């Protein structure tokens, strides 16, 4: 039976690469996005061109009702939910001590609380599936911290804790839960950055280069497939040292 996987933030960057990779692996894709309809339609056209089975779902995971309702929408359309890739996220960079509360609250609502609400709503369906899996996209920032991105790093670190708890709690029921922690990855977000802003990250990695979204997608696909890895965070960071 073909498995259905929900990918949040699935129309840009890492999420888009994950969608393409899982399509090649034969999954049916439920692709959620927040508001960029152009990117969503572009991704849909790309997936159509390779014959992928997919549907798009607009949902703002910072909205509790939209996050909670999304899994049921997917099961109504596909009949099952076998995997979840929690990739949706945002950042709002700035000095933490001078940042207004509403700015970091939005990051918390999307990256952490949105992921928690969605996962909670998806669990009853996942636990009915054959060899279900969750992969949570954290970040190197959640492992080592990141100056100027304190709120973002905090949410990503919290997701690592969530991964560990979910894996221990639901592993006995057959649900595998793991995370990936990408380092500095080449996406469209890089276009606005000067090389001087990330050169120190490249120099701090063993491979001395920027990673590609496809390399993160490979790790996600690996963790979705049946295996003995559980409640673990896989760093995809080129051997970054700090």
Automatic annotation (TrEMBL):
Segments forming domain Ketoreductase: 3-183
Enzyme Commission no: 1.1.1.-
Pfam families referenced in this protein's UniProt entry, alphabetically: adh_short_C2
EC main group: oxidoreductase
Keywords: Oxidoreductase
A GO molecular-function annotation: oxidoreductase activity
Top-level taxon: Bacteria
UniProt family annotation: Belongs to the short-chain dehydrogenases/reductases (SDR) family.
Annotated protein name in UniProt: SDR family NAD(P)-dependent oxidoreductase
Organism, as annotated: Paraherbaspirillum soli
């Amino acid at each position: 039976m073909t498995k259905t996987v929900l990918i949040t933030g699935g129309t840009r960057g890492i999420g888009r690469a994950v969608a393409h990779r899982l399509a090649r692996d034969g999954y049916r894709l439920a692709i959620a996005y927040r508001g960029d309809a152009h990117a969503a339609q572009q991704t849909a056209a790309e997936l159509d061109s390779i014959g992928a089975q997919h549907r798009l779902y607009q949902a703002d995971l910072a909205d509790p009702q939209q996050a909670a309702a999304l899994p049921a929408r997917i099961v109504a359309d596909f009949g099952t939910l076998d995997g979840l890739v929690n990739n949706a996220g945002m950042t709002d960079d700035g000095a933490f001590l001078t940042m207004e509360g509403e700015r970091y609250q939005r990051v918390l609502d999307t990256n952490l609380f949105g992921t928690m609400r969605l996962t909670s709503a998806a669990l009853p369906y996942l636990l009915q599936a054959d060899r279900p899996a969750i992969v949570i996209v954290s970040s190197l920032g959640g492992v080592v911290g990141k100056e100027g991105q304190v709120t973002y790093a905090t949410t990503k670190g919290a997701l690592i804790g969530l991964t560990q708890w979910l894996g221990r709690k639901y592993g006995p029921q057959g649900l595998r839960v793991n995370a990936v922690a990408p380092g500095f990855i080449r996406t469209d977000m890089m276009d606005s950055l000067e090389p001087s802003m990330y050169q120190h990250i490249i120099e701090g990695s063993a491979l001395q280069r920027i990673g590609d979204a496809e390399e993160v997608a490979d790790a996600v696909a690996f963790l979705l497939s049946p295996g003995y890895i559980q409640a673990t965070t896989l760093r995809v960071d080129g051997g970054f040292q700090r």
